[in-house]
Amino acid sequence: MTAEEVGGGAAGARRRMSAVTIDNIIFSVSSLVVFIWSAHVLEPVDFGRFALVLLVFVFVQGSLVRSLVSWTVMVHPEDADTRPRAVLGSALLLALGAGALCLAAGGLLLLGDSGLGASLLVVGALMPLLAVQEVGRFLSFAQAKPSRAIVIDVMWLLLTVVALVLIPLVHEMTLLWMVLAWGGTGALAGAWVFVQQGVPRGHDISLTWLKERWNFSWRSLVAASSSATVALIGAGLVAVVSGPLAVAAVRAALLLERPSTTIQMAVATSAGADIARERSDNAGLLAHQRRAMLVSLVVAGLNFGVLFLIPDALGELVLGDVWHLVTPLLLIIGLRVVAMAAQSGVRAALMGRRQISQVMKIDIVGTVLSIVGFVIGAYLGDAEGAYWGSLVGLTLTVAGWWWALVAHLRSGEGFADPEPAAPASDPADRPVS
């Protein structure tokens, strides 16, 4: 490879990282707009129900579709180039199953006269297109065309804002209408993925592609489920040993980490996609990882500083009375975002090399360390203790990620490719230009 090609590659990587970062910011802003808007327009009980609806969505998209399909195709860019319809078909079938479970649960709750029933029915019906929206973003990353993902997420954001403005003009904003405003616009944005990638045909809507990549995807599912386990079990145990106020403070603290973690996720995703697509050697891998870490450290430093400059009036505007619970945690929050930035891109680099067994093991160990730290800390010192405990667990996990990366680089294993090669594709399978 010539020096000119290397330079062009580096410049292209920086452009893609910028585009992926912009897309993740837009995606995060869209979620925050809906969450904050719902907190202001819904009754407290309906706001709680809406939070449950979002939790169902996040679980399906994050722990199921993203781990099994999105990350798998991102580290197999050849599939994104040659078989995008087969990838979308597997995602559709998974989402149809998850949607059917939501429809069944919603129907039962509706029979029991629960206020959550109708909303779950809507989410179940829209789940396939919401899954397509999610997978469409990662197909774009894998194809090194992140501008397509930006189009999808800008469309969802703009349609959501329009819906939230127009609905109150014709109808009172209820829980059901809120779900329709959020989920319906997401489904419309998901439909645009078919314009970009093509519509799956009958034989594409199967689990064939997923079965071919199962060696990677099931481990990805286990790894992704670890973070969801931390959120679910950790919050429950903190509530038991310390009380609901500690849980509220911890959840609010996680929101203050969001600016930094959004950027970290974006640059790590970009690095992982580039490593997988370029099949980078060790020097190339470290170049992508260092670029991701540098950006993350700068953003983490800014996040750290801003935390101490937020006036109480602004904090109360965003978090209400919970702001006063979270102010004692500002130093720990800042240290956590710096700790996370210090290993940014390491996990993604290992994913890009398809070292999924190592990733899965460290995610599981990190889950245990985080839960233990949360619970012991909460027992000793409520919310502040829980967060200090989580920082200890996080620091140990960061050390584990670096150990795994160094061990991999020294092993000389190179690019793991245990899965069978993708079969030759029909030209009709290629994405629409």
Automatic annotation (TrEMBL):
Instruction: Give the domain of life.
Output: Bacteria
Which segments cross the bilayer? 20-38, 50-74, 86-110, 148-169, 175-195, 239-256, 292-310, 322-342, 362-380, 386-405
Q: Could you tell me the membrane topology recorded for this protein?
A: Multi-pass membrane protein
Its cellular-component GO annotations read: plasma membrane
Q: Where in the cell is it found?
A: Cell membrane
UniProt keyword list:
Cell membrane, Membrane, Transmembrane, Transmembrane helix
InterPro entries cross-referenced by the UniProt entry: Poly_Biosynth_Transport
UniProt keyword annotation of Transmembrane helix present:
yes
Q: Does the keyword Transmembrane helix apply?
A: yes
The residues forming a coiled coil are: none
| This protein's name | Polysaccharide biosynthesis protein
Source organism: Nocardioides silvaticus
